[in-house]
Design a protein that fits this description.
2 helices, mainly alpha
Length: about 55
């Protein structure tokens, strides 16, 4: 596991706790961590970077 994956896992875990604990922004934090993971992976299974080829 890379450092990014560990930080994303912690962000998702804190986000899940935030769903129950009203002080933390649960779903926003978990969603943001998943988006960061997607951009760090940069494949079709994650989020494609801005240079993603477009269909003609």
């Amino acid at each position: 596991m890379t450092v990014v994956e560990v930080l994303v896992a912690v962000g998702i875990a804190v986000g899940l706790v935030g769903v129950v604990v009203p002080v933390l922004p649960g779903s926003l934090l978990a969603w943001s961590a998943i988006v960061v993971w997607g951009f760090s992976v940069g494949t079709a299974t994650g989020c494609a970077p801005p240079e993603f080829p477009t269909a003609h």
